Each structure stands twice: as structure tokens, then as C-alpha cells.
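Mods, move this if it's the wrong board.
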Amino acid sequence: MVDSVQTTTSCSLLVVVLNYRTPELTIDCLRSLTDEVAAIPNIQVVVTDNDSGDGSVEKIEAAIAHENWGSWVKLMPLGHNGGFAYGNNAAIRPLLLNAALPPYVLLLNPDTVVRPQAIITLVNFMEANPRVGIAGSRLEDPDATPQCSAFRFHTLFSELDGSLRIGLITQLLSRWVVAPPVMDTHHQTDWVAGASMIIRREVFEAVGLMDEEYFMYYEEMDYCLQANRAGWNCWYVPTSHVVHLVGQSSGVTDTKRPAKRRPQYWFDSRRRYFLKNYGWLYTLLCDAVWTLGFITWRLRRIIQRKPDSDPPQMLRDFLRNSVLMRGVLVRPAKCS
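Not the wrong board. C-alpha cells:
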């Protein structure tokens, strides 16, 4: 059962922080928001907890009381761990259904630390650009090294480039590379990382909530694609700086540790994204292209004695989760 959280109808910005077994990081994230709260009138922060079962709720609750954050932070424990979209939607859905959703919603990871004025910068950008539906911050390491935060949609050509890993091919397919070089200027992009992503209320009204059939990964890309199809632009705002401690909940995207075996939900999300948005034939072609490219890369890696940085059992897991093995049926989204 999902508990509702009451927010005032005059709230100008709703910030949703989804916690799953990272209470200390969540508390640090909230602490970094204190100055932003003072700068933005009527901000409301909702921390949802995906049934962590590790004392997270009690720790966060105690921190809210100890730091006197109760006037702007609400805690929403959830009945089960339904994933990223589910945990964020839980805070947004009641307000959307009651026509009380504020002008902007910011999805903010618990493993982030907000730099000064990062949030007000996003809000001001949205205010100045009414046709922009979604915008994302510049994510960075603690030493301010930028992370890739603005991306292109996954396509047949990006699947080939990502699996084959040949410099010449990457140059030829540069317009389809998912993660292009980081830019220091504001620019339109296909999608932005959900670690710090602001969404205009009208986007929710046009396309609904995020698809909860994604447990984790691909859901923010899918949402930006739905917004794009509804006529809403997505922009990258590098003047909004947010530190991102990558992969603290899942460990899948943490590049500073040896690669972990990809979890089942990653393959489920990838398959859903392609089937839902492009159909079974295109998905089959993407699977085939990725497989041939990856096999070519693995052979070249052995011949050239390159280090092995791939997730364990990646090829076997990919083939096992391809549309040929798992089928082409896609369950309808249940997020509305």
C-alpha cells in the first residue's frame, strides 16, 4: 500500500528523492538542499523509501527531526520495492490526480550532493524556456570532473557502435553515439540522466507518469522519448552542478570498481524499451547487430590482448534475454 503525502497547492517545486538502502547518502543529499530551500519559495521535498528494510526509514526520520527539516521534507515509506519509476511516481501520482501538482518536479537521486544554486538554476532555465519540458543538470564527480549526463536515444546504430568498439566505426556513427562528449554550453539533447532531472507539470499532463514496468534503467530515456513525441524538448543545463556518486544503489554503473554481472532487470528494461517504442522487427535487428558486434569485439580483445572490462557472462546473458529467447510481448504500462 502506498501512503499519500500532503503538499500545499502553492508549492512551486516538488523534489522527489527515492531511497533504497542508502540512508546516509539520502541524508547528505537533503543537507545539500538546505540552501536551495531558502532560495526557492514553497519548495517541497518528498523522500520515498522503496521498502528498504534496513532501518532507512527510522534513520531518515530521525535526521529530519534532528535537523528541523520537517517544514520542507516529508517521508513516504512504500509497501514494496517496485523500482525507480514506481518509487518516484508514488510521490507524484496523488498530486497529479488531484490537480495539485506544482509547476515543476525534480527527480533527484539519493547519491547526489547539490552544488550551490544548482536547483534554482534549473527552475530559472525552465521559466525562461516555456517549450522545454525536461532539463538535466551537469553531473560530476566530487572533484568536479564532469560525467556524461546528456544522451542520444538508443538505436540500431548505437547498438552496433557500443558492442563493436572500433574507433573508425565510432567516428562514422558519431551522430548516433549514445554518450557524446560533454559540452559546457546549454543545448538540446534526446534525454538526460534521471539523477537530476526537472520535469514541467504539463509533460505529466500530456504523457502521464513514468512507466513502472521498468524496474531500473531505460525508464528516464523512455520518458524523455514519450515527451519528445508529445512535442516537448529536452535540454542539458551545465550551469546546474550536481555531484553524483555513481551506482551506489545497484553498482551496475560504477566505473571505479570491476564490472558486475548485469542484473536481470537491466536486460528486461532494454528489451522493453526497444519493443515498446520500435516494435519486434527493429528489436530483433538490434539484438542481432549487438551480438555480432560483441562477438567481434571479444575476438579482437583476445588477439590484441586488451584488458577484459566487460560484465561477467555478458554474451550468454544477452542471448538468453534476446527477443528470440524471451519473446516479443510487452506488458502495457501500469503507471497512469
